[in-house]
């Protein structure tokens, strides 16, 4: 069974060296929010629609805190993605929508870290409902939708002693994880340095609607389009 699962994983490791967090910070945007918006644009172009997206957030502020869910697919992110695909929308409008989407994402991430997320709360209610043998249509519906885009940023270094500028050969692609849904993607990404990003894109070979190599190319195109967006405004 384990061997069959392993052989069904379609993994693509993509190293993005065109730019990294240095450019993102120069745009005055959170690198994590920027990367998540790139994934939203890539997924929409790949699937032709939006889907429930999972991003892991740490809850280390709390004793025994582990993770909470951030939902990057928002009204704001969808508005920006649609603007990117609409040729009638100006680059100024697109940048404004992107900034708005990134701020919304940052606020959601901050809320999740501070114990104001919704998904662990919903899961707890679900566990209690099962214990009390109470059937709840709302919980059944809200927890039945699959995470077709499951994402997580992993830290590159666990120690401050490692300096990538002094030791560039110590850079590592790290690891990833498999897709949560049979017809979805698992994307683990590392913002490794000022000019380097790593993406581990996984999906199932048995799924006719996913292709990890194709999705990695969509991520590359999304990141390039976002860079061109800001550079087009600088030229004016």
Automatic annotation (TrEMBL):
Protein source organism: Cherax quadricarinatus
Residue span(s) of domain Choline/carnitine acyltransferase: 3-221
Pfam families: Carn_acyltransf
InterPro entries associated with the record: Carn_acyl_trans, CAT-like_dom_sf, Cho/carn_acyl_trans
Cellular component per GO, a single term: mitochondrion
Name of the protein: Choline/carnitine acyltransferase domain-containing protein
UniProt similarity note: Belongs to the carnitine/choline acetyltransferase family.
Molecular function via GO: carnitine O-palmitoyltransferase activity
GO biological process, one term: carnitine metabolic process
